[in-house]
Amino acid sequence: MNNKSDILVGVDLTKTYGELAVVKGVSLAVRAGEFVSLVGKSGCGKTTLLSILSGLEHPTHGQAFLTGKEITGASEDELALFRRENVGFIFQSFNLIPTLSAWENVALPLFPIQMSEAERRRRATELLDQMELAHRLEHLPAALSGGEKQRVAIARALINNPKIVFADEPTGNLDTATGDAIMAILNQLHRRKGMTILMVTHEPELAKTADRVLHMQDGEMLS
Amino acid sequence: MNLRYVFKELTHQKRRTIISILGLSIGIALFVILNALSLAYHEAARAPLKEVGADITVQRPGNVPQELVGAVFPCSAVTIGEEEIEDIKAIPGIRGMGKAVLLWIFDPNRAWIVLGIEQNNPVGPSILKNFITEGRYLETGKPEVLVEAAYARQFGIRLGDHVNVAGRSYPVVGLIDASHASKIAVANLYLPLAEAQAIAAASKNLQSVSPFAGEDVNLLFIRADQDRITTVAAAIKGILGEKATIATPESFLKLLGSLFALSDKFTLAASIIAMIIAILVAFKTMAGNVAERAREIGVMKAVGWTHRNVTMQLLAESVIQGFAAGVLGLLIAQAAAFALGFMTVNIPIPWEMSPTPHFLPGGGDPLFKTLRLPVHIPWSLAAFALLLSVIIGGLTGALLGRHISKIKPSEVLRHE
Predict the structure, then answer these.
(1) Could you say which of B223, B247, B271 is where a domain stops?
(2) pLDDT band at B416 (very low <50, low <70, confident <90, very high)
(3) Is A158 near chain B, with CB under 8 Å?
(4) CB-CB: which of B300, B307, B415 is closest to A169?
(5) Residue A189: its pLDDT value, please?
(6) What digits encode the pLDDT tens for the residues B348-380?
(7) Residue B157: CA count within 13 A, CB half-sphere
């Protein structure tokens, strides 16, 4: 059923909340190194599907495999550990910790790991440097612009060398120019580093920059 | 747990952290000061007895002769027989005993309150040697007297004079000012115990109502193991009868009438209330803080923090707040203890313990031992309070952490 090069596979995934079915029997596969966009109108179930595929949420029915491992039956803590080692997240509203500086936010996934403070800082600094934020290391999120915040969030998503990055409306809270800059970074990550990316967006124009576009409507996959 | 993150969180949310620490610290301070006050009242209540080197005084009430002539016993202190003394000595828990004979002596021209003392027994009124203002203290085996300075002034008695007491003549070898000493068994004249016993034994008037042999006494001072004072007192009553007057720190505490002195249960109840208020304040502020951070905790879990990682992080934050609250609480309590240390407390001395004939000047006046309230915070109490504060912080953090770490990241991270 699954191709060996598929890094992410969903089989007949369904999610219901009481009587309401949000995701209805969705199956999909993402190959390693692929950049896939998931497009659909607000409320069509794409964020819920992304949550299931990334191990943030359990499906009501169906199976999800990430890097060959079935994640649908795993416990919360097993999933957390799995995400720590394999997954990076980029959220629409950045979700930076307001009390931590830029580099500390980037290093957040490393905090529970036995590692020296210097090593955490070195790795975070390196990524922020790649995001052209070397001058913002000690700044709190409140002192950063929207684009800077999202670049910090991207650096955080990459700190654990993930096998796949899930991006949920990464430009949703940004103006067009800044959004374009963020998309450029994601494309660069994909092309230069071969990063697998699954991006959720409701903007068809942004989705076109991906290798493949998947369409969702009313909880079902159209293509 | 990441300490950098802990301190950043606590310092960033300054107002909330301060309220949380302050709330808990006030509860801790109240807890400490209430207990320190209770200890202070206990210590104050112990002072009158401590000053005579005893934990318990023993008297037996009885009758006074119809005619007050010569040597008589006050109605609050009649004969305690030699055999009874031996029985009392054998009570487990007694570590030392002092004896005395208190007499009212009505001579034709003068009335004396006379106390016969064991000069060198540290348990009992030998403490008087510290209050000599003129002359010297009594020497063993010599029939001589000390006169209370105010009494000596009133009646023109001087050092080197001879005073006639119940038909016996004694040289005055010293004057003492006992106004600052314990107010128990205050007398005008102090002489060796053997002399007082001889006077009492020779008094027909006294013997008619309270037979008295040569080695008998009418006042006992007892030092006992601190944790056995109550049982020793009860055993003494068993020997001397229920009417015996047994003074203990506990009985003085009751005389104080203070709420703190009345009952350890009050202190316990007040402490518990203070702690409950502190816990509620701490819990409410910490709960508010944690609830506000649901999204943040969702992020932590999304990027790989386990349930335990999150709980430990919140636990560390609350334990540090609890520790800080404990230290601040102790500082507040120390300041309060310093201020309360200026308070004086008047410990009433029952008339029975220092009987003065009512018809003599000042005879009916109430007696008090006045001292500064000895408020201090023992190390053990401070350490317990600090530990308690940390435990409260820890439990609060663990409870909230356990609760909040169960949230699912997908529920709190959905974009607006």
Answers:
(1) B247
(2) very low
(3) no
(4) B415
(5) 86
(6) 777 777 767 766 666 667 777 788 888 989 999
(7) 25
Q: Which one of B4, B299, B307 has the shortest CB-CB distance to A95? A: B299
The CA distance from A153 to the nearest CA of chain B, in Å, is 11
Share of chain A above pLDDT 70, in %: 98
CATH of the domain at A85: 3.40.50.300
**Structure token digits, residue B152:** 């000596």
Nearest alpha-carbon partner for B199 in B186, B218, B181, B221: B218
- Which chain A residues are within 8 Å of B410, Cβ to Cβ? 48, 51, 56-57
Q: If contacts are CB pairs under 8 Å, which of residues 38-57 in chain A contact chain B?
A: 47-48, 51, 56-57
Q: Which of A185-189, B177-181, B278-282, B363-367 has the highest mean pLDDT?
A: A185-189
Query: Which member of A48, A96, A112 has the closest CB to residue B304?
Result: A112
Distance from CA of A93 to the nearest CA of B (A): 6
Query: Is pTM, for the whole model, over 0.80?
Result: no
- The reply to whether A53 falls in a domain is yes
Helix (H, G, I), strand (E, B) or coil at B128: helix
Q: Tell whether A168 is covered by a domain.
A: yes
H or E segment and range at residue B233 = helix B229-240
- Kindly provide the ipTM of the predicted complex, given to two decimals: 0.91
Task: Name B168's bridge partners.
Answer: B165
| CA nearest to A211, candidates A194, A222, A220, A8 | A194
